[in-house]
Amino acid sequence: MKTIIYIEKNPATKKLRNVSLELAYKAHTLMKPFKGEVVGVFTGDELPQDCDELFKYGINRVIYYTNPKLASIQSIAYKNIIEQMIKSEEPDIVLFGATHNGRDIAPLIASSLKAGLTADCTQLYIDDYKDKGKILFQMRPAFGGNILATIITPDDRPMMATAREGVMLLPEKTLDHPVKTEKFKADFKDEWVLNEFLEIVPKQKKVDFSTANIIVSGGAGVGSRENFELIRQLAHALKGEVGASRAAVDFGFIEKDHQVGQTGSVVRPKLYIACGISGQIQHRAGMEESNKIIALNKDPDAPIFGVAHCGIVGDLHEVIPVMLHYLKEEA
């Protein structure tokens, strides 16, 4: 078996996007039982500066096509070049990050190849299916996150999926794979370059969950934007970041950058404290792999308690001030 992953570069840093490393290791774990191959494909103006890092996460080969005209994303050009690579390699599986670029290019390629594509997967595994042999099972929340759907495309090759950054786990210890890059001779046409980018202005993130060991999140139960100050105070006292459920964001309690869940950020801190969050599946999908989870909710039947290591049934407006009092005493 063979899996191809689409390699992405951050245009601001010129380095790999984290999702490429995550997909590399996920593909490695999928292929390892079958002694299959993992191939990275890249196109752009130049390879990422840290391209060799991919081999530490299980990539066997990277094939690439570079051209100065591809410094900025050109959907049609990228699609045609990567499609040529896929046809040349004939993989069983093709994986993309569910980034702006991945979500743009993957459907174009799937449509052209007449292959199935599952978007925003949270889990991927390979198993037998009837007389079709080994196929890719693709899991993702559906119907607004109310169910977890398993999707298969047993009659299509390649089987294609996108996965969001932060969903696939990285290993604690990297691998020792030899570096092997190959230049691809693509059939390139200037007419594929349709857009001119005058300037790229990166969005400044207000919160960085990637390095946070502690996250304190608030939900609809916080009640108001003013009450969310309690969540901020607790996060500050614990030297953590402030998170939120989608409901809290939709109610205007806090900005979307703080949203945790299927439609926000996927996080894995050492400690996650959920305050006034009911714990619907779309939120749990973004935090349930945290090392320790504390849930605070006045509803004893709230779903969040099902994934919590420690549960506190009570009013957060009464409990958090007590927590802050003892934290100040210890300080």
Based on helices, strands and strand pairing, what is the structural class?
Answer: alpha/beta
Major beta sheet, strand line-up: 5-9-4-1-2-3-10
Proportion of helical residues: 10-25%
Mean pLDDT: 92
Name of the CATH first level of the largest domain: Alpha Beta
Strand content: 15-25%
Q: What is the element string, with H for helices and E for strands?
A: EHEEHEHEEEEEEEHEHEHEEH
Unreliable runs: none
Radius of gyration: 22 Å
State the total count of DSSP E strands: 15
Describe this structure in words.
This protein is α/β, with parallel strands linked by helices. The protein has 2 domains: about 1-190, HUPs (Rossmann fold, 3-Layer(aba) Sandwich); about 215-330, 3-Layer(aba) Sandwich (Rossmann fold). About 25% of the residues lie in helices and about 25% in strands. The protein contains 7 helices and 15 strands. The chain has helices at about 20-30, 75-90, 100-115, 230-235, 245-250, 280-285, 315-330; strands spanning about 1-5, 35-45, 60-65, 95, 115-120, 125-130, 135-140, 145-150, 160-165, 180-185, 215-220, 240-245, 270-275, 290-295, 310-315. The strands form 3 sheets. Strands 5-9-4-1-2-3-10 form a 7-stranded parallel beta sheet, sandwiched between helices. It has a 5-stranded parallel beta sheet with strand order 12-11-13-14-15. Helix 4 (about 230-235) links the parallel strand 11 (about 215-220) and strand 12 (about 240-245). Helix 2 crosses helix 3 and helix 4 packs parallel to helix 7. The chain is globular. The N and C termini lie far apart (about 55 Å). The model has no long low-confidence stretch (mean pLDDT about 90).
